[in-house]
Amino acid sequence: MEILSEVSRTLGEYLLLPNETTEKCVPERVDLTTALVRHRVGETSSLRVATPLLSAIMEAVSSPRLAIALAQYGGLAFVHQNQPIEAQVEDVAAVKRHKAGFRPASVAVKPTATLDEVTRLVRESGAEHVAVTEDGTVGGRLLGLIGPGDFHRDRHAGVDPVTTRMRGVEDVVTAPVGVSLGDANALLWDRRADVLAVVDGDVLESLVLRSDYDTHKRFRSESIDGRKRLRVAAGINTRDHRERVPALVGAGADLLCIDSSDGYTVYQARVLEDVRSAYGNGVYVGAGNVVDGRGFDYLADARAAFVKVGIGGGSICTTRQQKGIGRGQASALLDVARARDAYAERTGEYVPLVCDGGVLEDSHMAIALAMGADAIMLGRYFARTTESPTRRVRVGGQDYKEYWGEGSMRARNTARYEHHEDGEAVAFAEGVDGLVPYAGSLYDAVAMTSAKIRATMVSCGSTSLAAFRESARMVVVSEQSFRQTGAEVMVRPSADAIG
To answer: pLDDT at position 375, please?
Structure first.
């Protein structure tokens, strides 16, 4: 038996110390670009992203819609593998087919549906417009469009049918499939419309929104491949990888990752060997999760493209309680980063690290990057957004999004945690099912988080992640310091409240 002498510490137990900030060290000059796959030291990685944020390999997180939004903002989403191969392939293909500015038609109702039903659909799906079709399916004959802007709950009865407030197809600006985004936007402005329907005959294919015009102007660092398609990643498992990997590669997946709570296993080494035998270095596969240098070396020697760090630190994960396995995320990152740097010096190859779990605040992301992470994988953070695939529900006057772990009974993800030959059910859960407070659009959330990380790096005198890791200084936070963290003043009431 071996017992390590060090304490298992979390990201919240550290604070960064400021370094000199020069005239050249301003947020606008901070470059968050990071490598995602292994490369020779001194050379550029063949797969990089402009925003070091990745969505977790989770059913409750990484929908095609979220993958599109995150890639537009320079990050990368991992489509989950807890589904049939054909379904996962279609999710990947949907992202690769995406045309900037065109929102795929995704929600439809029958003309007999009520305004209350439309309100519920909009809240749950995040869609801004609902198609009204003859049979209530997206592929049905288009009769019109309706959205929250077409009615008001105080002026229109929720039980009224959508036909009382919808815009009939004759009043909707339309264009045929194949219209360019430039022409579609010109039509919107010429007709003073807020939405344009792209149709194939009488079937709605996609929507172009005027509100998206300014949004798309913001995207200067999209994650795109050599054919100008958005990048998307996908999870795989150790059970059906021989069938799943070729299908995902054929669909255009840019990066794969073995999805497991414990990566220090012969099963993952075999998957990496199988993929390398089939594709050489042409397909990138990350592995994990690990919490120490031994686990990292094992997967790096097995030729993992990147290594995920963290066991039991996720907000929805109960591995530590159920198995007694894990490590504080800060301790894990520091140990694995040391092993990564030693491996790079020994072999001349740099293997990126992905921090997966243990992030409760935006400040924790900056600390993780300073400790050696090349990117941050997030579940709860993205599950809260409009673009995640789960329902938006109202509880006690507040909006929430559903969220569950891949090890929960709701997911029943046998492929992730067990290796039963007969595919029997998971014996116990390593995750829970719950709700997270709704946080609005992913675009706004990522913009705010990126701004905070840049501000932190400026205070530490850095304008690149490599420089940040090299020069960062940190201290362990005492219990007394914890007590002094955050505001403890009463917020001043408004003038109206005082009056």
So the answer is: 98
